[in-house]
Amino acid sequence: MNFETIKFELKANGIGILSLNRPEKLNAINFQMEQELHELFDHLMTNLDCRVLILRAEGRAFCAGTDLQEGLLLNSKKLPEGYEKYYFLDVSEPVKKVTYHQWHISSMFVKMRKISQPIIALVQGAAAGGGFGFAMAADFRIVATDVNFINASINIGLSGADVGGSYFLPRLIGSSRATEILFTGKSVGAEEAMKIGLAIKLVEPNELLPSALELANELLKKSPLGLRMTKQALNLSLDSPSLETICQVENSGIVLTFSSKDMKEASAAFFGKRDPKYPLR
Asked: Which among 121, 127, 215, 261 counts the fewest CB atoms within 10 Å?
C-alpha cells in the first residue's frame, strides 16, 4: 500500500507498524492523511495477518492535531487545484463543509476502536487535538519523557469535546481529571500521564519502539481469536447497560475461543512449557 503522509509495514510475525509521516509539519492531520488513514483502517478491518498494530510518528512530535492551514479551506469559496477530490469541500455552504469534514475526521477514531487488532500508541513530543485523540483511541499508551498531551480545541475558541475526547478520557482516567483537562486545555506531561493512568509506561524517546515490540511480542503469545474477542468485549462493556449483558457477550467469546484450535495449541504449549505457535490465519 503506497501512501504519502503515513507509512505502514506488516512484519512476518503479524505486527503492523503504522507511522504518521509528516515530520516537517509535526505530523499535523491534513486531508490526505485523513484519506489514507481511512483506507488503512478499512483494510485492517478484515486483515487477519495483522494481529497487533503499533501506532507511532516520525520526527520530534507525535501529532500537532489538525493542519490549520488546510482547515482555512473549509471557509474558502475557491479551492486550490487538486482539492476537488475531497467530497466534504465540494459543497457551497461553509457550515456544511465543516460538518461533513468533522464527520470524516471523527469517524477515523471510531474505526480505531472497531478494528480488532490491539493498538499500541507510542507518543513523543506534542500530542495535541487529533493527536491526543489518536492516543486516547489506542488500547495502550507508551510515552516518552518529553511527551505533552494537549486538548487543543478549547484553547482556540472551539468546544473542548472533540474527536471522541469526551467519551475516551473519562473512561481512561475518571470524570474529575477528564473534566479539568477538557475544560482548561492544560497540558499533561509524562509524569502526570503515568500518575493518572493515561500511560502504561514511561521511557526515553529512543526506547519507544523497543518497548512496543516487547509488548507486541507478548501479545502474539495469546490466541489471535482470543485477543479479537477481548477487544470486542471491552468496547461493548464501555456502553453496556448491565452486568448481565456483558456476561452474555463474554460467555459467547469463551465458547467460541474454547472451540478453536488456538485454545488447543495454547493448552499444549502451557503443559509443554513452551511458547504457543498460532497460525496467522
From this structure: 261
Q: Do residue 191 and residue 245 come from a single domain?
A: no
Same domain, 161 and 259: no
Query: Is residue 15 within 8 Å of residue 56, measured between CB atoms?
Result: no
Query: Which residues of the chain are under the pLDDT cut of 50?
Result: none
Does the reported pTM lie above 0.85?
Answer: yes
Residue with the three cell numbers 507511532: 56
Question: Domain range for residue 247?
Answer: 224-271
Rounded distance between C-alpha atoms, residue 29 and residue 46, angstroms: 25
Do 129 and 168 share a structural domain?
yes
- Summarised one tens digit per residue, pLDDT across range 162-197 is 999 999 999 999 999 999 999 999 999 999 999 999
Q: Cα torsion at 120, 126, 131, 136 (round to 10°)? A: 50
Q: Are residues 158 and 264 in the same domain?
A: no
Strand partners of residue 15? 52
How far is it between the farthest Cα atoms of the chain?
68
In a domain, 264, yes or no: yes
Answer with the one of 181, 200, 219 that is the final residue of a domain: 219
- How many degrees, rounded to 5, is the angle at CA 183 between CA 179 and CA 188? 75
